[in-house]
Structures are given as structure tokens and as C-alpha cells.
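Hello K.,

You asked for the raw outputs rather than the summary table, so here they are, unedited. I folded two proteins back to back in the same session to keep the settings identical. This is the first:
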Amino acid sequence: MSQQLTTSRTLEFQDHSHKTNVFGPMIPRNPQFTDHFVDWVDTSKYTLTVGGSSDAIAFSATAGGQCLFTLGQADNDACMLAGKLIWNGSKNCSLNARVTITDVSGVALFVGFSDAETESNLLPMDYKDGTLVTTADDAVGFICDADKGTSSIYLVGTKNTTNATVVDSGVDWGDTETKELAITVDTNGHAYFWIDGVSVGKVTDAVTAATLLCPVVGGAVRAADLGETINLRRLSVWEDET
């Protein structure tokens, strides 16, 4: 078999093109590498809301790098990192985050979009005391909250203060596990979710498509399990060009 594949015009993947179809590194003859690591790990580029006692969000110099959330010393202490209000569903905004939770039974996590860079509750949406609590007017994202009494990851949204139907992704988050979380919001305000590259559900009427949103990652202490950590290893956001 020849070691070279030559095509005169294009190479088209059909049928299973939505699945993995390239194995091994793609190495172009003249590669160009762009390092976006500094952009997302530099917390000075984001709005940080650090409430409670001893909460902290800071760069942590570990292999591969991470933005480390250290949660507080009292139940429900919370902190939140948010980007700028420049994204919306009208432009098919998308978010991809890579997150590690050390102890799932001791934290609440929200990853997604919100209409405010900071919230009085510090999380746009959560399951405090087992009930869905919505602070934002418009928000969409993933929730994993020990107060819900499960390690399941839930898909949530709120459109102009009206909560969408919550979807259970069917995926549980285990201690020390790292998850790849992805969301796309379409021009109708519907949201599509992926975990570790697998589609896990859709939330209809998740947000108001025209409302400007910011990317948000937030964590809170649960069950007085103090000083737990959440590691944000990557955060990428994009949408259609204007």
C-alpha cells in the first residue's frame, strides 16, 4: 500500500463525519502554532467575584496549567469567574471548558453563559438546598451540585426569568474526574450540550437569543465540605463573525 494519499481537490468525509475520523497528529509542512493559554489563564482578563471566607481564584503552576478555584470555609461560600458580555445566540455562540472536580460531594459547579458578569448569589443557577435557584435573567449551562443529592450533570437554562425544562444528561461526575463540557446556543435560543465529545441533550428556549452573554465558571461549597477545589484547565468561547 502506498504511503502517500494524493487528492487533486478535496477530501470529503461522509456518513460518520461527525465522529472521530483522523487518527494521529495532523502535521502540515509549515505549521503555525498559536498559544491561547495565557489569554484564558490570566485571571486579570476576567471579572472575578470572590465571596465568603477564604475563597480564591488563581493561576496554579501545575503540569499543563490550570485556573484553581479554592472554595471557602463556610457552607454555600461561592466564587465566580466571568468573561465579557459580548456573546449571544444570534451569532451561534459556543463554549468549551475542561474542568476537574476534586470532591463532587462537597461542591456545586456552574459552567455556561450568563447575562451578568457577577451575581448576588455568585452562581447564575444552582441547586442550593436541593431546589433550582435562578439568579440570572438569562443563563444556560451545566450544573453539578451536591445539594441536589446526586453527582449527575444537569443541563439548564433560563429565558427572560423563565426556567427551561431541566434535562438530566445521564452522566455522573466522579471524584477527581476531568470533564470536557461544550455548549452551542442557536439563533432561536435553543442550547445543545456535549460531555467528553458526546451529545447529551438539548434545552429548548434556553435563553433569549439576542441577549448579550458572558462565559461563566462558578463554584460553591456544599455540605460544609470546606476548602474543596475546582480546576479550570481550559475555557474557549467563539461565535459567528459579525
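The second followed immediately with the same parameters:
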Amino acid sequence: MDKQSHSQRRDFNQRPPQICVLGSADPGSKAYELAGNAGEFIARAGFTVISGCGSPATRYAAERALKANGSVVSIVPSDDINTENWPCTVLIPCGMGDARNLMMALAGDACLVIGGRAGTISEVCLAWLHHRPLLPLTGCGGWSDQLENSPPDERKNSEILPWGSIEELETQFKKLGFFQST
């Protein structure tokens, strides 16, 4: 398989970048606030947020993206299309429980990683195996703090581009070619 990352091979074909938001952080924490800010930034950039909304941080990112008039695709574990109280413009009920982690990993052109626990590790490893760039939030604790220096394995399947502020996130998106030159 070609060693280029997913984002380097990607032809946008007029589709805006899809950014998957993975992880967890508690309300009131710096990571939680940055998750919300990232959701809003992604929406204002015209990108699509992909979220499972399974943690307060990923839900907050989706809510802030919606408030900024962005598009949010939520991939939920249940099989119920009528799931209520799910912040999204598109709801995809996968009916696969935690197996939906593969859908999450594949749905993004890049994956933001915020804090995180076991489910996040699963999603990150799947994204890594499928050459999705990983953008771990650093300086806020959780598993994402360790990702840059401890990647899933030795293969170097994709870029690992850390960020600690929205300005740094914007810089990393530019490195991935997600902003068109004017």
C-alpha cells in the first residue's frame, strides 16, 4: 500500500474536509473547553464535524459546531434512528455498539484526539491502521498527551500533529492541505 497519508491522497472533489472528534474530557476542564472551541472552529472553517457524542467533550464539540451553523454527522452505537437529544444535522445509527469505532475512524479525513480512555485508544488505533492523520490535544492530560511520543506502533502510518490551541490546530490543518489557497 502507498505510504502516503490519507490526507495526502485525498482529492476534495468539492466535499469539505470531515474531521472526526474522538476522546473524552470532563465539563469544566481545559480539554473540554478546547473541544468546544475546536468544534466551533471546524464549523466556521466550513468543515464537517464527525462525532459519536459519547462523551461530554465530543458532544460539546458537536453542540458548538451546530451553534456556529456547521454540519455535524453523529454515528451512534444504537440502531434507533429516532434517538433523541443527539446534536447533529445527520444521524447514523449503526446498531453495532462499540464496533462503530471503525466507522468513526474511517469517516474522518483527520481525527482530533481529546484526552481519552479505552474507547479512544480503540478509535485511534483503527484510524492509524487506515492512515488517518491524528491531531492529539496536548497539555491537558489524558491519552492524547502521550500520542506524539507513543504512537500506536512503529509503522508511521500517518502524521501525528499535536495542538494545544485553536491557532495551533489551524496550523496543523494547513499542513494537511485542508485550506484552499486563494
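The beta strands are 18-24, 48-51, 71-76, 90-93, 110-115, 134-136.

Happy to rerun anything if the numbers look odd on your end.

Regards,
P.
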